[in-house]
Specification:
By secondary structure, this protein is an all-alpha fold. Helix content is 64%, strand content 1%. The chain folds into 3 domains: 70 residues, no CATH class; 25 residues, no CATH class; 296 residues, no CATH class. Strand 1 and strand 2 form a beta hairpin. Helix 3 packs across helix 12, helix 5 packs antiparallel against helix 7 and helix 10 packs antiparallel against helix 14.
């Protein structure tokens, strides 16, 4: 009897979905569209007289499913767009066989990974060998759940959203170590150690640069940080953190560290094929390897989304008078631009050596990121005007010049001379 009642209640509820006039805000409008699955689940459970805890749980599951569906689709599209972009940069065609213009290439890759044989080394720890790829994907999905994508689309609105983001991100290092150790081989273990050293080194400037935003915003809530960047200077310049002297430097440090955290070129040393085969993923094949691949892209989405939230105003519009555009479209537009910059960097810069990578983190990025903290305080107490621009720019520019001279003259490798036999 409950099924017909549920259908009747849903038919009555259609006006609230935007199909008829109502005093409530319709869910089919652009701003509320991403919350439609979540609201439908809530209405269905309420119609079935479910307890409040079950309604809350169903709403949370629907919100999580929406985020996972969106970013799994984005992962498939990005795997094709990246190959097409790199092909364009390198004057190639890229994927052009599976479907019109190669648009079905992600489907072909997925079928290939699902049907390939799963090879498990005899000396491996089979359970940990199975768990490690899953542990790579889970932190990225959890991190994506706390990012505010729009004015009304915040899947899990946590007051300590940034703390949660970095806490679950720390699971990635553990998963990489388990993947290398559980393989029962020396190459994956060495690759895991190198990957962990890179990730730990670049997490420090990543978190320190984000700390300056927390210090000025006075909150760890990501939605509150976005709201703090809502106004405009001079009527048309957005008050994004990237458009301040301390925010520009902190944003650049954050972006460079994010590239290293996401294992993107020129910092993709965990997969230095010419040196250690495929790093901690050497002994993985089939769908397990696909999970590592998926976790890397989902992590790229997560770290890019956090950077947009901290420095680029999140879902805020770039110009006044554009509130009619759904806010989540602005967020994903910024995300597309940031991802394209990452692809452009990959197609432009060569891979660095491991010693250059570590030296750059500890002697370059970490000191500059630490400097953004007192500079952010000076910006706050100097009135955020012309005086603040002059003081902050001078304080940031002098150490940058010193570090540049040191890197170019003292720490750069000497010119190599090759002597050929006669």
């Amino acid at each position: 009897m409950r099924v017909p009642a549920l259908i009747a209640l849903l038919m009555i509820a259609f006006p609230t979905l935007g199909l008829a006039g109502t005093t409530e805000q319709p869910l089919l409008r652009g701003e509320s569209l991403p919350r439609l699955p979540q609201r439908l689940v809530e209405m269905a459970l309420e119609a079935l007289k479910a307890p409040d805890w079950l309604v809350s749980l169903g709403s949370l599951v629907a919100a999580a499913a929406t985020v996972v569906a969106v970013f799994l689709t984005a992962f498939a599209l990005l795997s094709l767009i990246e190959r097409k972009t790199l092909a364009r940069i390198q004057n190639r065609l890229g994927p052009n066989r599976a479907g019109p213009f190669g648009i079905l290439q992600p489907v072909a890759d997925g079928i290939k990974m699902l049907t390939k044989e799963d090879i498990v080394p005899t000396k491996s720890e089979w359970f940990l060998h199975l768990v490690a790829p899953v542990m790579i994907v889970v932190p990225s999905i959890l991190a994506l759940g706390v990012i505010p994508y729009g004015r009304e689309w915040i899947p899990v609105p946590l007051e300590l959203g940034m703390l949660f983001f970095f806490a679950v991100g720390a699971m990635t290092e553990l998963a990489v170590f388990i993947a290398g150790w559980a393989s029962g081989s020396k190459f994956p273990m060495l690759g895991a150690m190198r990957a962990i050293s890179q990730m730990v080194s670049y997490e420090l400037p990543l978190m320190i640069s984000a700390l300056s935003v927390v210090m000025l915003s006075g909150t760890l809530s990501l939605s509150a940080i976005v709201n703090a960047q809502a106004e405009f200077s001079l009527g048309f310049i957005p008050k994004w953190n990237i458009l301040t002297p301390w925010g520009f430097v902190a944003g650049m440090v954050f972006m460079i560290a994010a590239i290293a955290e996401a294992n993107r070129c020129p910092f993709d040393l965990p997969e230095g094929e010419s040196e250690i085969v495929a790093g901690h993923m050497t002994e993985y094949s089939g769908f397990k390897y696909a999970l590592f691949f998926m976790g890397e892209y989902l992590g790229l989405f997560a770290i890019s989304g956090l950077g947009i939230t901290l420095f680029l105003g999140g879902w805020q519009a770039p110009l006044p008078g554009l509130d009619s555009v759904p806010s989540w479209l602005w967020f994903f537009g910024k995300l597309a631009v940031v991802i394209f910059v990452f692809l452009w960097i990959r197609g432009t810069f060569p891979r660095v050596r491991i010693d250059q990578l570590m030296r750059f983190a500890w002697l370059g990025l970490i000191p500059i990121s630490l400097l953004t903290l007192p500079v952010a305080a000076i910006w706050q107490y100097s009135g955020k005007g012309v005086l603040g621009w002059l003081l902050c720019s001078a304080i940031l520019l002098i150490p940058f010049i010193i570090l540049t001279v040191l890197f170019n003259r003292r720490m750069a490798p000497a010119i190599r001379r090759y002597t050929f036999a006669e």
